[in-house]
């Protein structure tokens, strides 16, 4: 199961990093480092959270919320 998560993260994380870089005016390297240090990323790595099912934009919004408020708001599944 861990391989499935890893594969999904490899597909979606570059998009999330690009959104962070663009919106926070960071380099891709700085944006990736910021994401990897976040609580969101630690939750993304856990299969049971199912966060890797969300779109890059949703994950970016969750990251942004964490940065601005210190907490993560989990969107409701449609």
Question: Notable features of this structure?
Answer:
78 residues, mainly alpha, 0% strand
Report on this model:
The protein has 78 residues and is an all-alpha fold. It has one domain (2-66). It has helices spanning 2-24, 28-36, 39-44, 56-69. Helix 1 (2-24) packs across helix 2 and helix 1 crosses helix 4 (56-69). The longest helix is centred in the first third of the chain and has 23 residues, at 2-24. It is globular and about 30 Å long. The model has no long low-confidence stretch (mean pLDDT 90).
Radius of gyration: 12 Å
Total helical elements = 4
Order of helices and strands: HHHH
Strand fraction: under 5%
Please bin the fraction of helical residues: 55-70%
- Beta-strand segment tally: 0
SS-based class: mainly alpha
Number of domains: 1
Report the uncertain regions.
none
- Mean of pLDDT: 90
Q: N- to C-terminal separation?
A: 24 Å
Q: Which sheet architecture does the biggest sheet show?
A: none
Principal-axis shape: globular
Task: Provide a short characterization of the protein structure.
It is built from 4 helices and no strands. With 78 residues, the protein is an all-alpha fold.
Chart the SSEs and their pairings.
Blueprint: H1 2-24, H2 28-36, H3 39-44, H4 56-69
Helix pairs in contact: 1-2, 1-4
């Amino acid at each position: 199961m861990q391989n499935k998560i890893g594969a999904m993260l490899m597909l979606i994380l570059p998009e999330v990093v690009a959104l962070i870089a663009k919106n926070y005016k960071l380099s891709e390297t700085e944006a990736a480092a910021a994401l990897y240090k976040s609580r969101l990323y630690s939750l993304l790595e856990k299969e049971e959270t199912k966060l890797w099912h969300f779109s890059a934009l949703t994950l970016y919004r969750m990251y942004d919320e964490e940065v601005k408020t210190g907490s993560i708001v989990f969107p409701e599944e449609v």
